[in-house]
């Protein structure tokens, strides 16, 4: 009898262990919630002080504090570690808010993040400064970019739209009010189109005008026609569409000057023109020319793009440019335009120069990780902006049909913009009426 129960027990244990091993590989989220999270939380709680000590994240107490500890509390005087303000478990990891003592700064914690990762046995530790004197340690229990699932609480907030998952398990958000123009680069099959689809899927639900420029005869963007206010699929059409956008920009500046403000978001709600996002697919098609007679058109296109890049932010016109490479080999004006596109998303690239084109001027530290993105992880990219910070992201796998379905569903949000009507792509007649050409305000948050 005892033998039988021992065998059953052992079999049960083995099955349990096997199940856990299986879950760890096949369902890391479930494994993390059942096993990883309690173990890591326990290890963090038990070893916090000593870990901070060995990782060099403690400071000597002030003289007064040392005096009081020694003479009033009659305790040994120990170095001071950051105070734990909050510990929170998530489905991907553990978040810890720390209050830094005088003498420690966020850069010290960032520098120690690799040591903290080893000490607590987690997949990654990233550090974000949440407010002066406070940092959040974002630990992930497993590689969240292996199979992307956006956090459940992700939502669109005005012109801040979620596009991908960051390696710390939070959503990567494209915020047009913070970073108005962006450039997405990557080699063939690196995941640029999927990134654009994910972006369009989110943008389609926002009251903005979407303008497509896709000189590969619209093979990608024509699927989004129901939600597009304009689509150009040839360089000639792109040149005249960009001229119209520059005219729009100028008339919006007239409106700003009439009301004595410098930004559309300062206009009264009822007068604010709808934001326009211009999505340029494969930008090289606009720059490269095959004969001398195309030169004038190229000049028009490049001038219009540079003017939009330099000034259009203030009037709510934003550029989202995508290409395989974007450097001086595209000719005059390319590097000048690139300098205006301060948001950068670089997917896998074929050579170091492409990573440098995309990242060296805004976040030099991001060049190396961009060059290390493996081919078997399409959709993975390094995102950076002119703040110098960067993060590894991966887009959720999004099919063209999925993005097209969202565009059809939100076709009623295509705003009234008569100047763009000649460029409106053909859409089925049974689609609902258009949305308003003015938008509700969103307080600008810094
Ligand atoms: N996030 C992702 N997860 C899984 N697979 C992805 C992801 N992103 C892209 N892929 C896959 O990688 C392949 C290439 O993606 P995509 O078409 O977006 O690349 P691309 O850079 O636009 O290529 P090209 O320049 O050749 O058009 C596709 O088969 C796509 O399904």
Description:
The chain is of the alpha/beta class. The protein folds into two domains: 2-140, no CATH class; 160-423, Rossmann fold. The protein is 36% helix and 19% strand. The protein contains 13 helices and 14 strands. A ten-stranded mixed sheet has the order 6-5-14-13-12-7-11-10-8-9. It has a four-stranded antiparallel sheet with strand order 1-2-4-3. The site of adenosine-5'-triphosphate (ATP) has 14 residues, from helix 6.
* Count of helical regions: 13
- Indicate the mean pLDDT: 88
Task: Give the count of structural domains.
Answer: 2
Q: Would you tell me the structural class of the helices and strands?
A: alpha/beta
Concise account of the structure shown:
With 446 residues, this protein is α/β, with parallel strands linked by helices. The protein is built from 13 helices and 14 strands. It has helices at 2-26, 28-54, 63-71, 106-111, 113-120, 192-203, 235-258, 284-287, 295-311, 334-340, 352-359, 367-371, 400-409, and strands at residues 83-89, 93-99, 124-131, 134-140, 160-166, 171-175, 182-185, 209-214, 228-232, 276-281, 317-323, 343-347, 380-384, 390-394.
Strand and helix map with partners:
Layout (H helix, E strand, L loop, with lengths): L1 H25 L1 H27 L8 H9 L11 E7 L3 E7 L6 H6 L1 H8 L3 E8 L2 E7 L19 E7 L4 E5 L6 E4 L6 H12 L5 E6 L13 E5 L2 H24 L17 E6 L2 H4 L7 H17 L5 E7 L10 H7 L2 E5 L4 H8 L7 H5 L8 E5 L5 E5 L5 H10 L37
Parallel strand pairs: 7-11, 7-12, 8-9, 8-10, 10-11
Antiparallel strand pairs: 1-2, 2-4, 3-4, 5-6, 5-14, 12-13, 13-14
Helix pairs in contact: 1-2, 6-13, 7-9, 9-10
């Amino acid at each position: 009898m005892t033998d039988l129960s021992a065998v059953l027990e052992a079999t049960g244990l083995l099955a349990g262990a096997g199940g856990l091993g299986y879950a760890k590989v096949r369902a890391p989220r479930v494994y993390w919630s059942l096993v990883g999270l309690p173990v890591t939380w326990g290890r963090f709680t038990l070893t916090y002080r000593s870990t901070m000590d060995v990782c060099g994240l403690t400071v000597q107490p002030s003289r007064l504090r040392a005096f009081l500890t020694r003479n009033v509390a009659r305790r040994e005087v120990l170095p001071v570690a950051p105070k734990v303000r909050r510990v929170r478990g998530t489905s991907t990891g553990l978040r810890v808010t720390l209050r830094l003592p005088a003498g420690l700064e966020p850069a010290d914690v960032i520098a120690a993040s690799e040591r903290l990762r080893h000490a607590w046995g987690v997949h990654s530790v990233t550090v974000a400064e949440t407010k002066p004197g406070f940092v959040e340690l974002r630990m992930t229990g497993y590689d969240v970019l292996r199979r992307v699932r956006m956090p459940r609480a992700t939502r669109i907030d005005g012109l801040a739209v979620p596009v991908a998952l960051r390696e710390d398990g939070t959503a990567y958000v494209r915020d047009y009010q913070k970073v108005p123009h962006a450039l997405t680069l990557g080699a063939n099959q690196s995941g640029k189109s999927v990134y654009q689809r994910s972006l369009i899927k989110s943008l389609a639900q926002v009251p903005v005008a979407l303008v497509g420029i896709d000189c590969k005869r619209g093979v990608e963007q024509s699927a989004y026609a129901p939600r597009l206010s304009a689509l150009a699929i040839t360089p000639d059409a792109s040149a005249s569409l960009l001229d119209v956008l520059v005219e729009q920009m100028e008339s919006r500046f007239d409106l700003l000057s009439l009301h004595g403000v410098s930004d559309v978001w300062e206009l009264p709600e009822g007068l604010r023109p709808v934001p326009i996002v211009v999505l340029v697919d494969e930008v090289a098609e606009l720059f490269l020319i095959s004969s001398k007679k195309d030169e004038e058109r190229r000049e028009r296109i490049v001038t219009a793009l540079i003017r939009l890049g330099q000034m259009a932010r203030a009037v709510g016109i934003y550029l989202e440019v995508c290409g395989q490479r974007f450097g001086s080999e595209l000719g005059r004006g390319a590097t000048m335009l690139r300098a205006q596109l301060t948001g950068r998303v670089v997917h896998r690239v074929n050579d170091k120069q492409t990573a440098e084109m995309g990242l060296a001027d805004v976040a030099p530290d991001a060049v190396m990780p961009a060059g290390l993105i493996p081919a078997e992880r399409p959709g993975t990219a390094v995102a950076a902006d002119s703040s110098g910070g960067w993060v590894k992201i991966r887009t959720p796998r999004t099919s063209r049909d999925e993005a097209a379905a969202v565009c059809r569903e939100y076709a009623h949000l295509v705003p009234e913009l008569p100047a763009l009507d000649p460029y409106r792509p053909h859409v089925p007649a049974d689609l609902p009426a258009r949305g308003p050409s003015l938008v509700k305000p969103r307080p600008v948050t810094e």
